[in-house]
Protein backbone atom coordinates (compact mmCIF):
# COMPACT_ATOMS: atom_id res chain seq x y z
CA UNK A 1 0.00 0.00 0.00
CA UNK A 2 1.47 3.36 -0.90
CA UNK A 3 1.59 6.25 1.53
CA UNK A 4 -1.39 8.09 0.12
CA UNK A 5 -3.67 5.09 0.47
CA UNK A 6 -2.45 4.24 3.95
CA UNK A 7 -3.31 7.70 5.24
CA UNK A 8 -6.85 7.68 3.87
CA UNK A 9 -9.74 7.96 6.25
CA UNK A 10 -12.63 5.54 6.54
CA UNK A 11 -15.88 6.25 4.70
CA UNK A 12 -17.77 8.65 6.98
CA UNK A 13 -21.02 6.69 6.90
CA UNK A 14 -19.12 3.53 7.87
CA UNK A 15 -17.40 5.56 10.60
CA UNK A 16 -20.82 6.63 11.81
CA UNK A 17 -22.11 3.05 11.93
CA UNK A 18 -19.05 1.95 13.93
CA UNK A 19 -19.36 4.91 16.31
CA UNK A 20 -23.04 4.10 16.76
CA UNK A 21 -22.15 0.51 17.65
CA UNK A 22 -19.57 1.71 20.20
CA UNK A 23 -22.25 3.94 21.73
CA UNK A 24 -24.75 1.06 21.76
CA UNK A 25 -22.16 -1.12 23.53
CA UNK A 26 -21.84 1.56 26.22
CA UNK A 27 -25.61 1.58 26.71
CA UNK A 28 -25.79 -2.22 26.85
CA UNK A 29 -22.96 -2.75 29.32
CA UNK A 30 -23.04 0.40 31.39
CA UNK A 31 -26.50 1.90 30.85
CA UNK A 32 -25.01 5.19 29.78
CA UNK A 33 -23.67 6.93 26.72
CA UNK A 34 -20.25 8.25 25.80
CA UNK A 35 -18.76 11.46 27.20
CA UNK A 36 -15.63 13.53 27.39
CA UNK A 37 -15.96 16.77 29.37
CA UNK A 38 -17.07 14.91 32.50
CA UNK A 39 -13.66 13.23 32.65
CA UNK A 40 -11.98 16.64 32.66
CA UNK A 41 -14.27 17.76 35.47
CA UNK A 42 -13.48 14.68 37.55
CA UNK A 43 -9.74 15.32 37.25
CA UNK A 44 -10.19 19.06 37.90
CA UNK A 45 -12.13 18.48 41.12
CA UNK A 46 -9.52 15.97 42.34
CA UNK A 47 -6.72 18.41 41.49
CA UNK A 48 -8.37 21.31 43.29
CA UNK A 49 -8.77 19.08 46.32
CA UNK A 50 -5.08 18.16 46.25
CA UNK A 51 -4.02 21.79 45.95
CA UNK A 52 -6.43 23.17 48.52
CA UNK A 53 -8.39 20.65 50.60
CA UNK A 54 -9.83 23.37 52.82
CA UNK A 55 -11.25 25.22 49.81
CA UNK A 56 -13.03 22.07 48.63
CA UNK A 57 -14.22 21.45 52.16
CA UNK A 58 -15.86 24.87 52.36
CA UNK A 59 -17.34 25.03 48.85
CA UNK A 60 -20.82 23.67 48.36
CA UNK A 61 -20.31 22.85 44.68
CA UNK A 62 -17.34 20.53 45.32
CA UNK A 63 -19.08 18.88 48.25
CA UNK A 64 -22.13 18.11 46.12
CA UNK A 65 -19.94 16.80 43.32
CA UNK A 66 -18.01 14.57 45.68
CA UNK A 67 -21.21 13.24 47.22
CA UNK A 68 -22.43 12.10 43.80
CA UNK A 69 -19.02 10.93 42.55
CA UNK A 70 -17.49 8.99 45.41
CA UNK A 71 -14.24 7.24 44.66
CA UNK A 72 -12.59 10.02 42.72
CA UNK A 73 -11.24 9.94 39.15
CA UNK A 74 -9.92 6.36 39.37
CA UNK A 75 -13.46 5.09 39.89
CA UNK A 76 -14.94 7.38 37.27
CA UNK A 77 -16.35 5.69 34.16
CA UNK A 78 -15.60 8.70 31.93
CA UNK A 79 -11.98 8.95 33.06
CA UNK A 80 -11.33 5.32 32.03
CA UNK A 81 -13.22 5.86 28.80
CA UNK A 82 -11.10 8.92 27.94
CA UNK A 83 -7.88 7.02 28.72
CA UNK A 84 -9.17 4.48 26.23
CA UNK A 85 -9.74 7.25 23.68
CA UNK A 86 -6.06 8.22 23.93
CA UNK A 87 -5.06 4.59 23.34
CA UNK A 88 -7.56 4.00 20.53
CA UNK A 89 -6.67 7.22 18.74
CA UNK A 90 -2.98 6.38 19.03
CA UNK A 91 -3.48 2.87 17.60
CA UNK A 92 -5.47 4.21 14.65
CA UNK A 93 -2.94 6.98 14.03
CA UNK A 94 -0.05 4.51 14.20
CA UNK A 95 -1.71 2.10 11.76
CA UNK A 96 -2.43 4.94 9.33
CA UNK A 97 0.98 6.57 9.63
CA UNK A 98 -0.44 9.75 11.11
CA UNK A 99 1.60 9.97 14.31
CA UNK A 100 3.36 13.33 14.17
CA UNK A 101 3.85 16.34 16.41
CA UNK A 102 2.13 19.09 14.50
CA UNK A 103 0.16 22.32 14.80
CA UNK A 104 -2.52 22.15 12.16
CA UNK A 105 -3.64 25.53 10.83
CA UNK A 106 -4.80 27.48 7.81
CA UNK A 107 -1.96 28.94 5.69
CA UNK A 108 -3.40 32.38 6.46
CA UNK A 109 -2.50 32.24 10.16
CA UNK A 110 0.65 31.34 12.10
CA UNK A 111 1.05 28.38 14.45
CA UNK A 112 1.05 30.77 17.39
CA UNK A 113 -2.33 32.27 16.42
CA UNK A 114 -3.72 28.76 16.02
CA UNK A 115 -2.47 27.69 19.45
CA UNK A 116 -3.97 30.77 21.10
CA UNK A 117 -7.36 30.37 19.43
CA UNK A 118 -7.39 26.65 20.27
CA UNK A 119 -6.87 27.60 23.93
CA UNK A 120 -9.66 30.21 23.79
CA UNK A 121 -11.96 27.69 22.14
CA UNK A 122 -11.06 25.18 24.83
CA UNK A 123 -11.92 27.62 27.63
CA UNK A 124 -15.32 28.34 26.08
CA UNK A 125 -15.99 24.66 25.41
CA UNK A 126 -14.94 23.72 28.93
CA UNK A 127 -17.22 26.29 30.51
CA UNK A 128 -20.13 25.69 28.10
CA UNK A 129 -20.01 21.93 28.56
CA UNK A 130 -20.42 22.31 32.32
CA UNK A 131 -23.29 24.74 31.94
CA UNK A 132 -24.93 22.55 29.27
CA UNK A 133 -24.44 19.35 31.33
CA UNK A 134 -22.26 17.68 28.75
CA UNK A 135 -20.46 18.27 25.49
CA UNK A 136 -20.86 17.05 21.94
CA UNK A 137 -20.38 13.44 23.10
CA UNK A 138 -22.23 13.32 26.39
CA UNK A 139 -25.08 15.71 25.74
CA UNK A 140 -25.54 15.96 21.97
CA UNK A 141 -24.61 12.51 20.61
CA UNK A 142 -25.59 10.31 23.55
CA UNK A 143 -28.59 12.53 24.32
CA UNK A 144 -29.88 12.23 20.76
CA UNK A 145 -29.52 8.44 20.81
CA UNK A 146 -31.86 8.26 23.83
CA UNK A 147 -34.07 10.96 22.25
CA UNK A 148 -33.49 13.38 25.14
CA UNK A 149 -35.02 16.76 24.40
CA UNK A 150 -32.04 18.46 26.03
CA UNK A 151 -29.67 16.52 23.77
CA UNK A 152 -31.38 17.81 20.65
CA UNK A 153 -31.45 21.39 21.98
CA UNK A 154 -27.75 21.34 22.92
CA UNK A 155 -26.84 19.80 19.55
CA UNK A 156 -28.84 22.46 17.67
CA UNK A 157 -27.22 25.32 19.61
CA UNK A 158 -23.65 23.98 19.33
CA UNK A 159 -23.86 23.58 15.56
CA UNK A 160 -26.20 26.54 15.00
CA UNK A 161 -23.90 29.00 16.81
CA UNK A 162 -20.82 27.64 15.07
CA UNK A 163 -22.53 28.02 11.68
CA UNK A 164 -23.72 31.54 12.54
CA UNK A 165 -20.19 32.67 13.45
CA UNK A 166 -18.35 30.72 10.73
CA UNK A 167 -18.11 33.75 8.45
CA UNK A 168 -16.27 35.80 11.08
CA UNK A 169 -13.84 33.00 11.90
CA UNK A 170 -13.14 32.02 8.28
CA UNK A 171 -9.53 33.22 8.33
CA UNK A 172 -8.76 30.60 10.95
CA UNK A 173 -9.79 27.74 8.67
CA UNK A 174 -9.92 28.58 4.97
CA UNK B 1 -31.04 -8.40 30.17
CA UNK B 2 -29.12 -5.16 29.92
CA UNK B 3 -27.82 -2.75 30.97
CA UNK B 4 -25.48 -5.37 32.43
CA UNK B 5 -24.15 -3.16 35.24
CA UNK B 6 -27.63 -2.25 36.48
CA UNK B 7 -28.67 -5.92 36.60
CA UNK B 8 -25.38 -6.68 38.34
CA UNK B 9 -24.28 -9.15 35.65
CA UNK B 10 -20.92 -7.40 35.76
CA UNK B 11 -19.00 -5.91 38.68
CA UNK B 12 -18.07 -2.29 39.14
CA UNK B 13 -14.48 -3.08 38.15
CA UNK B 14 -15.59 -4.89 35.00
CA UNK B 15 -17.67 -1.82 34.22
CA UNK B 16 -14.58 0.39 34.47
CA UNK B 17 -12.64 -2.06 32.31
CA UNK B 18 -15.46 -1.89 29.76
CA UNK B 19 -15.24 1.92 29.91
CA UNK B 20 -11.59 1.64 28.93
CA UNK B 21 -12.32 -0.82 26.09
CA UNK B 22 -15.27 1.25 24.86
CA UNK B 23 -12.99 4.30 24.99
CA UNK B 24 -10.45 2.51 22.77
CA UNK B 25 -13.21 1.86 20.25
CA UNK B 26 -14.40 5.45 20.55
CA UNK B 27 -10.92 6.92 20.02
CA UNK B 28 -10.12 4.51 17.19
CA UNK B 29 -13.29 5.31 15.25
CA UNK B 30 -12.92 9.07 15.81
CA UNK B 31 -9.33 9.01 14.54
CA UNK B 32 -10.16 6.72 11.63
CA UNK B 33 -12.99 9.06 10.60
CA UNK B 34 -10.63 12.04 10.54
CA UNK B 35 -11.81 13.69 13.76
CA UNK B 36 -8.20 14.15 14.84
CA UNK B 37 -7.93 17.00 12.31
CA UNK B 38 -9.34 20.38 13.32
CA UNK B 39 -9.47 21.62 9.74
CA UNK B 40 -11.49 18.57 8.75
CA UNK B 41 -13.87 19.17 11.66
CA UNK B 42 -14.17 22.88 10.85
CA UNK B 43 -14.88 21.99 7.20
CA UNK B 44 -18.40 21.25 8.38
CA UNK B 45 -19.04 24.98 8.79
CA UNK B 46 -17.68 25.99 5.38
CA UNK B 47 -19.10 23.10 3.39
CA UNK B 48 -15.80 21.71 2.12
CA UNK B 49 -15.93 18.65 4.39
CA UNK B 50 -19.17 17.47 6.00
CA UNK B 51 -17.70 14.35 7.63
CA UNK B 52 -18.87 15.57 11.05
CA UNK B 53 -22.50 15.70 9.92
CA UNK B 54 -22.34 12.24 8.34
CA UNK B 55 -20.56 10.48 11.19
CA UNK B 56 -22.51 12.24 13.95
CA UNK B 57 -26.01 11.63 12.62
CA UNK B 58 -25.27 8.12 11.37
CA UNK B 59 -23.93 7.23 14.82
CA UNK B 60 -26.91 8.74 16.66
CA UNK B 61 -29.35 6.87 14.42
CA UNK B 62 -27.52 3.53 14.64
CA UNK B 63 -27.43 3.75 18.45
CA UNK B 64 -31.06 4.87 18.63
CA UNK B 65 -32.24 2.03 16.38
CA UNK B 66 -29.99 -0.40 18.23
CA UNK B 67 -31.61 0.54 21.53
CA UNK B 68 -35.05 0.18 19.97
CA UNK B 69 -34.27 -3.31 18.60
CA UNK B 70 -32.56 -4.45 21.80
CA UNK B 71 -35.64 -3.31 23.69
CA UNK B 72 -38.00 -5.17 21.35
CA UNK B 73 -35.89 -8.34 21.66
CA UNK B 74 -36.01 -8.03 25.44
CA UNK B 75 -32.24 -7.56 25.66
CA UNK B 76 -32.27 -4.20 27.35
CA UNK B 77 -34.57 -2.33 29.71
CA UNK B 78 -34.89 1.15 28.25
CA UNK B 79 -36.26 2.53 31.51
CA UNK B 80 -32.85 1.92 33.09
CA UNK B 81 -30.87 3.81 30.44
CA UNK B 82 -29.63 7.22 31.52
CA UNK B 83 -31.59 9.98 29.85
CA UNK B 84 -29.99 13.40 29.94
CA UNK B 85 -32.19 15.79 31.92
CA UNK B 86 -33.44 18.92 30.21
CA UNK B 87 -32.84 22.27 31.82
CA UNK B 88 -33.96 24.52 29.01
CA UNK B 89 -31.87 27.66 29.55
CA UNK B 90 -28.59 26.02 30.47
CA UNK B 91 -28.93 23.72 27.45
CA UNK B 92 -29.41 26.72 25.17
CA UNK B 93 -26.76 29.02 26.67
CA UNK B 94 -24.29 26.19 27.27
CA UNK B 95 -24.80 24.95 23.71
CA UNK B 96 -24.26 28.43 22.27
CA UNK B 97 -21.04 28.93 24.27
CA UNK B 98 -19.81 25.53 23.09
CA UNK B 99 -20.63 26.59 19.50
CA UNK B 100 -18.37 29.65 19.84
CA UNK B 101 -15.67 27.41 21.29
CA UNK B 102 -16.06 24.98 18.38
CA UNK B 103 -15.63 27.56 15.61
CA UNK B 104 -12.67 29.26 17.35
CA UNK B 105 -10.98 26.14 18.68
CA UNK B 106 -11.81 23.61 15.98
CA UNK B 107 -12.29 20.75 18.41
CA UNK B 108 -14.78 19.50 20.90
CA UNK B 109 -13.49 17.78 24.07
CA UNK B 110 -13.61 14.20 22.73
CA UNK B 111 -11.98 15.01 19.41
CA UNK B 112 -9.28 17.08 21.15
CA UNK B 113 -8.16 14.03 23.17
CA UNK B 114 -8.27 11.97 19.99
CA UNK B 115 -6.13 14.56 18.17
CA UNK B 116 -3.70 14.77 21.08
CA UNK B 117 -3.16 11.01 20.88
CA UNK B 118 -1.60 11.38 17.42
CA UNK B 119 0.49 14.40 18.37
CA UNK B 120 -1.59 17.48 17.48
CA UNK B 121 -0.19 20.29 19.62
CA UNK B 122 -3.15 22.59 19.02
CA UNK B 123 -5.25 19.90 20.73
CA UNK B 124 -2.97 20.22 23.74
CA UNK B 125 -3.66 23.95 24.17
CA UNK B 126 -7.37 23.26 23.57
CA UNK B 127 -7.32 20.76 26.45
CA UNK B 128 -5.44 23.29 28.59
CA UNK B 129 -8.28 25.68 27.81
CA UNK B 130 -10.84 23.02 28.75
CA UNK B 131 -9.30 22.70 32.20
CA UNK B 132 -9.39 26.49 32.67
CA UNK B 133 -13.00 26.63 31.45
CA UNK B 134 -14.07 23.88 33.86
CA UNK B 135 -12.30 25.61 36.77
CA UNK B 136 -14.04 28.89 35.86
CA UNK B 137 -17.33 27.03 36.07
CA UNK B 138 -16.69 25.18 39.33
CA UNK B 139 -15.24 28.27 41.03
CA UNK B 140 -17.84 30.66 39.64
CA UNK B 141 -20.75 28.31 40.25
CA UNK B 142 -22.65 30.50 42.76
CA UNK B 143 -22.84 33.23 40.11
CA UNK B 144 -24.45 31.01 37.49
CA UNK B 145 -26.36 28.65 39.73
CA UNK B 146 -29.67 30.27 38.90
CA UNK B 147 -29.17 29.85 35.15
CA UNK B 148 -27.88 26.30 35.67
CA UNK B 149 -31.09 25.15 37.36
CA UNK B 150 -33.58 27.35 35.49
CA UNK B 151 -36.56 25.79 33.69
CA UNK B 152 -36.07 22.21 34.88
CA UNK B 153 -38.21 20.06 32.58
CA UNK B 154 -37.19 16.68 34.02
CA UNK B 155 -36.13 14.01 31.53
CA UNK B 156 -38.51 14.40 28.61
CA UNK B 157 -37.84 12.56 25.38
CA UNK B 158 -38.53 14.48 22.23
CA UNK B 159 -41.01 11.90 20.88
CA UNK B 160 -43.09 12.05 24.09
CA UNK B 161 -43.17 15.80 23.82
CA UNK B 162 -44.51 15.69 20.28
CA UNK B 163 -46.77 12.79 21.22
CA UNK B 164 -45.51 10.13 18.81
CA UNK B 165 -43.88 6.74 19.33
CA UNK B 166 -40.15 6.21 19.53
CA UNK B 167 -40.20 4.30 16.25
CA UNK B 168 -42.13 6.98 14.36
CA UNK B 169 -39.76 9.66 15.58
CA UNK B 170 -36.85 7.45 14.57
CA UNK B 171 -38.22 7.21 11.04
CA UNK B 172 -38.59 11.01 10.86
CA UNK B 173 -35.04 11.45 12.15
CA UNK B 174 -33.71 9.04 9.50
CA UNK B 175 -35.51 10.95 6.74
CA UNK B 176 -34.22 14.29 8.05
CA UNK B 177 -30.69 12.86 8.25
CA UNK B 178 -30.91 11.56 4.67
CA UNK B 179 -31.96 15.04 3.56
CA UNK B 180 -29.00 16.58 5.40
CA UNK B 181 -26.59 14.00 3.94
CA UNK B 182 -27.83 14.98 0.50
CA UNK B 183 -27.15 18.67 1.24
CA UNK B 184 -23.74 17.74 2.69
CA UNK B 185 -22.71 15.81 -0.44
CA UNK B 186 -23.88 18.75 -2.55
CA UNK B 187 -21.91 21.25 -0.42
CA UNK B 188 -18.72 19.21 -0.74
CA UNK B 189 -19.01 19.40 -4.53
CA UNK B 190 -19.86 23.09 -4.46
CA UNK B 191 -17.12 24.23 -2.04
CA UNK B 192 -14.30 21.78 -2.72
CA UNK B 193 -10.84 22.15 -1.19
CA UNK B 194 -7.96 20.05 -2.39
CA UNK B 195 -5.67 20.35 0.57
CA UNK B 196 -6.38 21.07 4.19
From TrEMBL, chain A:
Assigned keywords, A-Z: Cell inner membrane, Cell membrane, Membrane, Transmembrane, Transmembrane helix, Transport
Q: Does the keyword Transmembrane apply?
A: yes
* Record-annotated membrane-spanning stretches: 12-31, 77-101, 113-132, 144-169
The protein's matches in InterPro entries, at most eight in alphabetical order, are given as: Sulf_transp_TsuA/YedE
Subcellular location(s) per record: Cell inner membrane
Question: What is the membrane topology noted in the UniProt record heading this document?
Answer: Multi-pass membrane protein
Record Pfam families: Sulf_transp (PF04143)
Instruction: Return the similarity comment.
Output: Belongs to the TsuA/YedE (TC 9.B.102) family.
What PANTHER family does UniProt report for this protein, alphabetically? INNER MEMBRANE PROTEIN YEDE, SULPHUR TRANSPORT DOMAIN-CONTAINING PROTEIN
The protein's name: YeeE/YedE family protein
Species the sequence originates in: Carboxylicivirga marina
From TrEMBL, chain B:
Record keywords:
Membrane, Transmembrane, Transmembrane helix
Checking InterPro entries in the record gives: Sulf_transp_TsuA/YedE
Q: Pfam families from the xrefs?
A: Sulf_transp
Asked if the record carries the keyword Disulfide bond, the reply is no
Protein's recorded name: YeeE/YedE family protein
The transmembrane residues are: 13-30, 51-76, 88-116, 123-144, 164-183
